[in-house]
Amino acid sequence: MNTDPIADYLTRVRNAIKANHRVVEIPASNLKKEITKVLFDKGYIANYKFDEDTVQGTIKIALKYHPVSKVPAIRTLKRVSKPGLRKYAGVDTMPRVLNGLGIAILSTSKGVMTDKEARLQNVGGEVLCYVY
């Protein structure tokens, strides 16, 4: 049993990138689906597919690499808020990842979104992870 499913999700993606895999399969949950949609919208992954074959379902993520140099689009995935120590940020204390070049994924009352979208909608929330 995984005590932190989001950390497991990030670790599976991180390991697949290090092994130069094209596709990674992850057990699904609603929060993981929302994180996947944010990563796709911001251009960090090539594509995704939700399979509802089993009871829990799976998420298949096609990872994105540079066509010539084969450098992955995701260089770093870092879990911020952990089950043992939750990290929350208000609108005024919203983190900037790599001075705006990366994104922070937040879980807010209006759904899962990036730090920039949260600033525009004037909401704070739990900082799930940093991606750059």
TrEMBL record:
Keyword field: Ribonucleoprotein, Ribosomal protein, RNA-binding, rRNA-binding
A family per Pfam: Ribosomal_S8
InterPro entries: Ribosomal_uS8, Ribosomal_uS8_CS, Ribosomal_uS8_sf
GO biological process: one example: translation
MF term (GO), any: rRNA binding
PROSITE patterns: RIBOSOMAL_S8
Cellular component, GO, one term: ribosome
Family statement: Belongs to the universal ribosomal protein uS8 family.
Subunit structure: Part of the 30S ribosomal subunit. Contacts proteins S5 and S12.
Function: One of the primary rRNA binding proteins, it binds directly to 16S rRNA central domain where it helps coordinate assembly of the platform of the 30S subunit.
Name of the protein described by the UniProt record: Small ribosomal subunit protein uS8
Source organism (scientific name): Parapedobacter luteus
